[in-house]
Amino acid sequence: MIQFENVGFRYKRGPEVLQNVNLEIPAGSFQFITGESGAGKSSLLRLLFLDEVPTSGRISLFGRDVTTLTRDEIAWFRRRIGVVFQDFRLLDHLSAAENVALPLTVSGARETAYRDNVTEMLQWVGLGDKMEVRPPELSGGEKQRVAIARAVVASPDIILADEPTGSVDPAMAERIMALFVEMNRLGKTVLFASHDLAMIEQYKLPITTLRDGTVSSGMGAAA
Amino acid sequence: MSAIRGKGALIPFQAASGGLMLLIVAAMAFLACFALAGALATTRIAATWTEGLAGAATVRIDANEDDRARRTSLVLDILRDTEGIIDARALNERDVAELLTPWFGGTPDLGELPAPGIVAVTLDTENEPDPTVVQARLDGAGAGAIYDDHGRWRGRAAKAARAIGNLSWWALVLTVLAIAAAAFLVISIAMVAHKGTIEALRLAGAEDRFVAGLYQKRFFWLGALGGLIGSGVALTAFVGLDALSSVRAALPMLDAPYYWPFAWLGIVLACALVAVLAARLAVLTTLRRRG
Ligand SMILES: Nc1ncnc2c1ncn2[C@@H]1O[C@H](COP(=O)(O)OP(=O)(O)O)[C@@H](O)[C@H]1O
Ligand SMILES: [Mg+2]
């Protein structure tokens, strides 16, 4: 499903962020990605949702070399990928519910068809009473939960979560973690990036560590 | 539930840019109506002129009074014997004086003037005679007369009408281009302000044509509303302004009032269509350029 072959990546100016990364993530797996701040976790996810292209090597996604995709195909691939951005990237002029509905709206679905889904998702992340509130009036943790609801609402094949528990309290973090595990149980591939090694080591799940631009794999210990 | 509005809310359009677009389209539609009316009226007026001149010719006989009667009857004989001429009639002095009145400002006393003898000729419009042949016959008989079927005037009137008509069509083309250019410019500027929003839509899986559709929808309404306002003001001016009554009289659609709403609707839809196409082009090229 996701395959990195000798992938190198750098931003236009700046040093190499990723070097010679080889990674294979089978469909339906759950994978933590960890590493210190600045190690390249967000960059790796950015390559996966096709916001950047590798400077060398090859990334294949859903069986396609990502550099061969047309603009329309990129759009279609993104509909199969839900992303929780580290900086949330909510639209300030839309309500929380409209932000959550965005992946459904842009794929042409009718509002009546997904209204209940959106409501349910927002209730699940504990924001059932904030549906009409706009992001500028939400706390950091609330924005993060809106971003999470948006990432999973369209039931994508792959979920990319960039520090999705960074702004919430431990109880909510556990709830969010449980959501992603549940999504994985439903067959979704989950990539969960976090620098919080103490948190992710509680789970008996594969961990990929980024250091000096390359990856090494390990396994968390069951709590 | 009001927490989720439709697609229309996705892009935070600025009222100011919408107002600017509206103003430009309305002004252009207003001008387009006058260009269109000009084209239609000119065509109609030219047709009336040439129709009025068709089917008639004149023969002028320059001669002193003694010789004039003889030559006139010679000319009449020749003309009545020519195929394609239905009737030929010599105008008496009164007729001629009447014809000349506008140039003299009062009924002239022809006794003092070497007024020409004039023969009015009625032509068979289905089968007008060749003027050079008629002239040659008159010359052959030594009538000393000049045959004039107004062909030169007809040709000039038609040419002038065509020229004005062509200019009007060019004015329409320029109007369309101006609306398209305005839409293109307004959108290009707006898309800079909407950059973050558009990026978020793309990341959520929106195709370029979806983003373009959001702008197209808005510019359809701006184009239609601008067209409605501009053409509405122009039509009100046509109907209401006395000074334009002769233009109004020359507009063929007044013969058929049922025509009006369709012409109006056509202008409004044309404005909307031009705005939509320009919007689509502007959005798609901007998105591709950004990559
Ligand atoms: N848009 C960008 N342009 C240039 N350099 C960037 C950009 N984003 C991140 N970087 C750099 O790339 C490196 C990796 O960043 P990032 O992937 O965000 O790491 P992490 O998510 O692991 O903290 C850092 O050195 C960071 O400064
Ligand atoms: Mg990061």
- Work out the helicity level of chain A: 25-40%
So what's the CATH class of chain A?
Alpha Beta
Examine the coordinates and then state which fold CATH places here, giving the name of the CATH topology of chain A: Rossmann fold
First-residue to last-residue Cα separation of chain A: 29 Å
Q: Walk across the major sheet of chain B and give the strand order.
A: 2-3-1-4
Q: Which residue ranges of chain B are poorly predicted, with pLDDT under 50 across at least 5 consecutive positions?
A: none
Order of helices and strands of chain A: EEEHEEHEHHHEHEHEE
Total separate domains of chain B: 2
Q: Mean pLDDT of chain B, nearest integer?
A: 83
The total domain count of chain A is 1
Radius of gyration of chain A: 17 Å
Structural class of chain B: alpha+beta
Shape of chain B, please? rod-shaped
Number of DSSP E strands of chain A: 10
Biggest chain pair contact, residues each? A-B, 31 and 24 residues
Strand content of chain A: 25-35%
User: How many DSSP H or I helices of chain A?
Assistant: 7
